[in-house]
Design brief:
Layout (H helix, E strand, L loop, with lengths): L2 H35 L6 H16 L3 E5 L11 E4 L5 H9 L4 E6 L8 H7 L3 E3 L3 H14 L5 E4 L17 H9 L3 E7 L1 H5 L10 E6 L5 H4 L4 H14 L6
Parallel strand pairs: 1-7, 2-5, 2-6, 3-4, 3-5
Antiparallel strand pairs: 6-7
């Protein structure tokens, strides 16, 4: 992209896209909270953020490509594992995976204005650092993940600093084994270039999400957790494109 186009995109992003994003975020959080208070934490609490995510990619002019969705059963619950490149990972998965889901989130994210409260009310799965917190997370997830409701986890635990994958943490795999759900590795490309943790502004770019074959509980039976972690890491990493 030429310098002139970059300047025009930055100007558009700051003056038009970002104000629209902020307004849409507040409205979506409000809708989710009201829906959850009325007892709906599955339908509207999913579809409102789903369209909010699509709207976000649309207003920032982000092109999205998804492959492998046909491998998923709408009625089956899964534990999705994805690499964590940047902020747009959320919009990519929420908007384009097309599978009802909850997120595993760190406790401190509850403090995000509007969004944190909406996440609490819609029964997202929060986890702390203590053993007691992890055990409570397993219980919470067991109640939530049924009848096609799935969980998304970033097993690296945080966004990458350099675009390369970091070692996986064991918690996601322990949780999946405890619940007995299929693991689904997913590879995200492009999010680091668009808006990574060090960036101040959104950059124009393309996002892609690749859904890999599910790894069932039966396939994992008798295999050490470390081996499963290494296998999932390799599957995701092998589809990761070099940074340009």
């Amino acid at each position: 992209m030429s310098l002139i186009l970059r300047f025009l995109y930055t100007l558009y992003s700051i003056c038009i896209a970002t104000p629209l994003f902020v307004i849409a975020t507040i409205i979506t959080a409000f809708i989710v909270v009201i829906a959850a208070m009325l007892g709906d934490d599955k339908f509207i609490a999913y579809w409102a953020p789903h369209y909010w995510s699509r709207f976000t990619c649309f207003i920032y002019l982000i092109c999205v490509k998804v492959t492998g969705r046909e491998k998923l059963d709408k009625q089956q619950s899964y534990v999705f594992l994805a690499n964590h490149q940047g902020y747009f990972d959320i919009f990519l998965i929420y908007g384009y995976l097309d599978h009802n889901l909850k997120w595993m989130m760190k406790e401190y994210l509850k403090k995000i204005p509007f969004v944190g409260y909406a996440c609490q009310k819609s029964n997202q799965v929060f986890v702390g650092n203590s053993l007691a917190s992890i055990q409570e997370t397993v219980k919470s997830a067991q109640k939530t993940l049924r009848e096609g409701m799935s969980l998304v986890i970033f097993p690296e635990g945080t966004r990458t600093y350099d675009g390369k994958m970091q070692p996986f943490k064991k918690g996601a795999f322990t949780l999946a084994n405890e619940i007995g759900l299929p693991l689904v590795p997913m590879t995200i490309n492009g999010s680091f270039q668009i808006f990574n943790r060090k960036a101040k502004l959104v950059h124009f770019g393309k996002l892609s999400l690749t859904v890999h074959d599910p790894i069932t509980a039966e396939q994992r039976k008798g295999i050490p957790t470390k081996k499963i972690m290494e296998s999932a890491f390799e599957i995701i990493n092998n589809d990761l494109k070099p940074l340009q």
